[in-house]
Structures are given as C-alpha cells and as structure tokens.
Amino acid sequence: MAKVKTKWVCQSCGYESFSYLGRCPDCGNFATFCEETVQEAPQLKANSSPALVLNNDLCAKRLNDIENDEKIRLKTDMQEFDRVLGGGFVAGSLVLLAGDPGIGKSTLILQTCKNLCSKKDGTGSVCALYICAEESPQQVKLRAQRLGVDTVNLYVTNQNCLEEVVRQIDEIKPDFLVVDSIQAVFSSQITSSSGSVSQIRECTNILMHIAKQKNITTVIIGHVTKEGNIAGPKVLEHMVDCVINFEGDRYKSYRILRSIKNRFGTTSEVGVFNMEDDGLSEVLNPSELFLNPSDTSNCGCSVIAALEGTRVLLLEIQALTGSTPYPNPRRVARGIEYNRLLQILAVLEKRVGLNLSKQDVYINVIGGIDIIEPAADLGAALAVLSCARDIPLKSKTVMIGEIGLSGEIRAVDNLEKRLREAQKLGFEYAIIPKVNKNIEQKISKLEIKTCQVSKLTDAIIQAFKQD
C-alpha cells in the first residue's frame, strides 16, 4: 500500500514545509500554512517498465513543416478586448482573467460568449462551454437575460469537479471554454481543499494540456487577494499564455482591461469599457473620458500624452500644495510612482529653486490610470509649479518629456503618435523634448504647434507664456 504523508503548504506562494511555520520564509506572510495530505506513487518493480504512448501531434517536427490554421485568431467583435488580446483569442491559448469582486469579469466573458456564438467561422458555428463553478445555471440565465444573451451554441454547467468537467468537454467538444472560477474547481485526485495552491496548480496544468492538445481556446477567471495580487501560486501566471487584469472603481462606471502578460501581443495594452444597465459598452476614445470636458487651464492642472501599449491616452494631472504645521510634510501620489514624485520635487528644488520643504504635495492622475513611463515627468512638474505659484498653464497645451536629475528634458518614444492624438482632441500647442532626432520632418505636416525645449527652465517659460 502506498505510504501517506502530510506537508504544510503556504497558500500565498506555494512554499512547502514538513512542519507548521508561523511565517513563510519565502514570501514573509504570516499564518498562511495549511496542512495537505500527499500520497506517494507506488514504486515500479525492477523488471517492469512504463508503457510509452506515442502521439503523432507530440512528435518533433521541423519548424517549416508546421502549418497554422487560417482561423488562428478568434475575434470577439469587441475592439477594446481584441486590442488587449493582440487581435483576438489565439486558438488553443490559455487566458487568465483576474479582477476585484463585482468588477464585471463574468459580465465581460458572458458578452464575449454571446459574440462568439453568434458569429460564423470557416467550420461552422462557434460552440462555447461555460463552467460556472460558483453559481447555478439559473443565476447565469438571469445575467444572460439582462445582457441579451440568447444563443443555442452556449452550454452552461455548474460542475466544479475537474474530472466531470473533462468528461463534458469530451462530450460537447467546445471551441471556447470558460472556467469561472479556477479557485472553485477541484480535482478528486488531490486531497487538499478547493482553492489551495496544490489544487489551483494541478487544475490549471490539466486545463492547459487540454487546451493545447484539443485546440480549445480556454479562459480561466481568477480571484485577487486584498493586496491586489492574483490568488494562488505565482507559477499560475507562468503557465498561461495571457494574463489580463480587469480594473476599476466600483463607484464609477468605467472599467479598464489591462494586459500584464501576452505571448501573442503587446504587453501593457489597455482597453476601456463603461458599465451600463445592459452590460459593458466600449469606450473607443478614452481620452475624452479622462479629460475635463470644460477646461484644463486651472491652477495645478496639466495634460500629458501617455503611451499605454500601442494606444496614446491624454490624461489630466492635478497637483495641490499647501503649508503644513508639522515638521514632516506629506507626499501623496496617485497614478504616479511615489519615488518618481520625490525625484521630481528634488529637481524642482535644486534646479528651479522651488522650496517645498514646508508644504504638503498631493498629485493625482484623473481617471485612476497608473502611469509607469517617465514621459509624464514634465506634466507632473509643471502641475506642481502651477499650484505652488498659483498661475495657470497655457490653455490647450500638452506636456511631453522626461526630466533628468540635472534638469534636462530627455527624449521619449513615439512622439509623432502622441502629437497626432493631441491634435485630434483639439490641442493647439505642445511642449516636447528637443533631443528627439529627425522629429522636425515628421511633425512639419501636423497642425499642432510645438516648442522644443532642452531644459526644465525653458519648458517653464514656454508653459506659462500666454499668447
């Protein structure tokens, strides 16, 4: 009889130990170890050898002999979703969709199933199987009626046993599979409870092999922890082909779909949706959503052109400064990295002479977008200076540029693309870096006026210069 052992597994990172530990030595979290039973496989006899099963599809082939199907991409007919995916779902890919509770993950996937099952491809209707492991089919039907989903090619089941799910996949033979959610699915071959690290890892591994061997496009929906990380082991993100995060504020109507990992497209791509009574609607021009429709020439306000993947977003940065009676003034940054803000304030104090040692500084990017690229430095610095001096910036002006420690304005990528987006939204003036090479020929045909600067002091003069 096989020997039975127990082990303690950290539910945050998957670290294994032979005894209980109060703190995980790998991730540092407290009280995250759970006991799991492990059954060792029986050892083979000396004269026995495992049987080898050969599969022609798994044999090595020359790269030139491998043929791709013409329908390698499965478009969702949702431009924002297809943009994040890199042009649509790749046949046989495994996609992980994560987000906060109630953000709209199930709504997005159900609308995607509606579009896929209503269209025709070269082989006939697209068949979809929806595994609702956390809801009953009646509850899914209520949501489908609200969203207007009425198709005969969508199958729904509330099975959460992986072996039963595999059996139904063999019977229905779907082209599109949804598992909602992976934390609620369990395998009877593993003794730990559903949602544990072992269950998530093994269930995802089996679904990955099914997707690759049977060429089934699979979407697994995952939970997030209170820190905002995807629940389960980190290896889960390495196993899938694409990791998509659904972000947004439940008290606001818009949602942001962000690509974190994509083997078949651009990473850091974003798509914007608006949550309405009848489901999610696409926002094809999100810059109009994030900008102030009335005026952006108030004190402490500036407009930047940020690049998210292949899309240019015009965002408004607001800054607020005020005196404080405390010895340590506050520095609060939302949408911009905190250390980046400290660097910008240090440059303003050293190179411009702006003393903020006794003032609180608050900076916010309107819309809840997190800006990672340094091209927003110039807009953030001018917004802080505008509020500190109580002087508005030049109206209908966009700021583009990275600030170095010596006060120089450094070059940015895709400058022409940023200027075209600003011109399309009605901006008349742009302050750009001077060191961008061969930019004069590219922007000479644009109607927007540009001012090339090499120093932060030169940008300040042009930004506060009124016509």
Please give a structural write-up.
The protein has 467 residues and is an alpha/beta fold. Helix content is 26%, strand content 27%. α8 links the parallel β19 and β20. α8 packs across α9. The longest helix has 18 residues.
Please tag this protein with its features.
9-stranded mixed beta sheet, 25 strands, 467 residues, alpha/beta, 7-stranded mixed beta sheet, 12 helices
Return Rg in Å: 27 Å
Largest sheet: 9 strands, mixed
Percent range of helical residues: 25-40%
Distance between the termini: 88 Å
The main sheet orders its strands as 10-9-11-12-6-13-14-15-16
Count of DSSP-assigned helices: 12
Low-pLDDT sequence parts: 41-55
Q: Report the portion of residues in β strands.
A: 25-35%
Specify the structural class: alpha/beta
> How many extended strands?
25
Write down the overall mean pLDDT. 86
General form: globular
What would a concise description of this structure say?
The protein is α/β, with parallel strands linked by helices and 467 residues long. Helices cover 26% and strands 27% of the residues.
Helix and strand arrangement:
Layout: E1 4-10, E2 16-17, E3 33-39, E4 73-74, H1 79-85, E5 89-90, E6 94-99, H2 105-118, E7 120-121, E8 124-125, E9 128-132, H3 137-147, E10 154-157, H4 162-172, E11 176-180, H5 197-214, E12 217-222, H6 235-239, E13 242-248, E14 254-262, E15 270-276, E16 279-282, H7 286-290, E17 301-308, E18 311-323, E19 331-334, H8 338-352, E20 359-365, H9 377-389, E21 397-399, E22 402-403, E23 409-410, H10 415-424, E24 429-433, H11 439-443, E25 449-453, H12 456-463
Parallel strand pairs: 6-12, 6-13, 9-10, 9-11, 11-12, 17-21, 19-20, 21-24, 24-25
Antiparallel strand pairs: 1-2, 1-3, 4-5, 7-8, 13-14, 14-15, 15-16, 17-18, 18-20, 22-23
